[in-house]
Every structure is written in C-alpha cells, then in structure tokens.
Amino acid sequence: MDSMDSFNESILSDAVAFCERYGLSDSKFGKLSPVNDAHIMERLQAGTCRRDTVLRLRRFMARYRLDQESA
Which band of pLDDT confidence, cut at 50, 70 and 90, is reported for residue 4? Predict the structure, then answer.
C-alpha cells in the first residue's frame, strides 16, 4: 500500500466515524462540507479525491467538532 492509499483510507475511516458521531448521512456530510458534493463519500471510497479536497474535509470536520462542543 502506498502513502496515498493509506491517506485515502485514513480520511474515509475518519469521515465514517464523524458521520456516525454526529448522525449525518453520507450525502448530508457532503452537502455540509466545503466541497458541497453529496457523493463525496463514494469518491473517498474509490480513492479519487485529491489531496487538497481531503485537507478541506479534515478542516471542515475539525471546525464542526469545535462548533458542536461549544454549542
């Protein structure tokens, strides 16, 4: 497994856990995220997301967590 595969696997597992924690469907996660893509989870599973997209998703999840914890 090369580093990009592990990078994609890591974001996928983090995104799945994030959706479970906050009760979000895959499509809701994609629509709320800055990429505004209801099919983003499918793209993550396929490993077709670019590194900058993955980084945007990570920032979104971090901000969302902070917002939920401070609410």
Answer: low
d(C-alpha 49, C-alpha 10), whole Å: 12
pTM: 0.87
The single residue listed with the structure tokens 């893509």 is 37
Contact assessment for residue 57 and residue 11, using Cβ atoms and an 8 Å cutoff: yes
Q: Distance from CA of residue 57 to its chain's centroid?
A: 5
User: How far apart are the C-alpha atoms of 53 and 59, rounded to whole Å?
Assistant: 10
- For residue 6, count other CB atoms closer than 10 A to its CB: 10
Per DSSP, helices labelled H in the chain are 3-22, 26-32, 40-46, 51-70
